[in-house]
Amino acid sequence: MSLSVEKKQLHVPPLEEVATVLQSALKNSFAEASVSVVECPDLTKPPYGLEAVGLCGSPRLGDVGGVPNLMPVVQKDKLYDIRDLAKSVDLPDGFVIGAGAGPHPHVGVNSELMANLVAGDRASNGCHIAKVNDAGSYQLMKLPPTETRCALMLNMFASEGQSGKVLHIKAKKRTNDTNLVTCLRKGLEEFYGEKAVGLGGTFRLMQGRAKCHVMPDFPKAPLTCDADVNKWLKFYDMPAPMVFLSTLISKDVDLDLRIEHSHGYGKDCGGHYHYDTTPDAVEYEGYYNVAELMYRIDRPIVTHSFGRN
Ligand SMILES: [Zn+2]
Question: Can you give the residue ranges of the DUF1907 domain (predicted)?
Answer without folding.
Answer: 21-297
